[in-house]
Amino acid sequence: MSIVEPIPQHVAVIMDGNGRWAERHGRERAEGHAAGIEPMRATLRAAQRHGVKYVTFYAFSTENWGRPAAEVDALMELLCCCVASETPDLQRQGVRVRIIGDRSRFSEKVRSSLDRIEADTAAGETLTMVLALNYSSRDELRRAVCRLAGEAAAGRLAPEAIDERCIAAALDTHGMPDPDLVIRTSGEQRLSNFLLWQAAYAEFYFPEVLWPDFTEEEFDRALAVYARRDRRFGLVGETRR
Ligand code: IPE
Ligand code: IPE
Ligand code: MG
User: Most buried in the list 16, 41, 178, 217, measured by CB within 10 Å?
Assistant: First the structure.
């Protein structure tokens, strides 16, 4: 499929529907999560083909800790396995991995896997893959506010100097462009605490496909839909040019 410009610089993906996919195939939920790895690879391939620079995957929310222990354990195991198995391919493809979210709640084993994949892929220059892990937007904002309040209390930051740039710089996503396009699979149309600040002017796309069935062609379709959107950023007429 030929894609028309413009290409989004940053695509953020809410990978939803693994559980329903498993149910439909008579499998355990954990198998649905395992089936969600290949679509991540496909998304990265397609993103690189189009020249997308950042892809963020919502992989585990702070709220997801409330799921049954067996499912949470399976997700942690999958995370550690994938970090080990995917690193060589990511390095070959020039993909840099960056983690957002509060990693202090993870076990030592998971934390060291995350540190390792970030360090091992730090030289990647073609695309940045951002993994949102133990992430929620409200928690990210809470942590940022704590940090800024600490700076202010210590006399290093004047409260009136806190502007939007300052807040953005205190978020986990500091230094990254805001997402241009947010894709959520499985037909659900909500953000579920994902990038609330950063997605202020993002375009949204909600395909019905369940995440394990997402393909490169689905990604191409999302970019074709994005290319037809008219992003106005609150402006009209000649002020937009
Ligand atoms: C998304 O799939 C993956 C995670 C939240 C980790 P779900 O597990 O939410 O799948 P459904 O929504 O139950 O189908
Ligand atoms: C959002 O999906 C979180 C991830 C995809 C990691 P959920 O399935 O947890 O969200 P809700 O519960 O449907 O809002
Ligand atoms: Mg879900």
Answer: 16
- CB distance 85 to 78 below 8 Å: no
pTM above 0.85, yes or no: yes
Distance CA 214, CA 28 (A): 19
Tell me: the pLDDT tens digits for 74-132?
A: 999 999 999 999 999 999 999 999 999 999 999 999 999 999 999 999 999 999 999 99
C-alpha of residue 16 to centroid of ligand 2, in Å:
6
3.40.50.10860, 3.40.50.2300, 3.40.1180.10, 3.40.50.170: CATH of 10-136+179-227? 3.40.1180.10
Please indicate whether residue 4 or residue 10 has the higher confidence score (pLDDT): 10
CA of 187 to the centre of ligand 1 (A): 12
Tokens of 211: 């995440």
135 Cβ closer than 6 Å to some ligand 1 atom: no
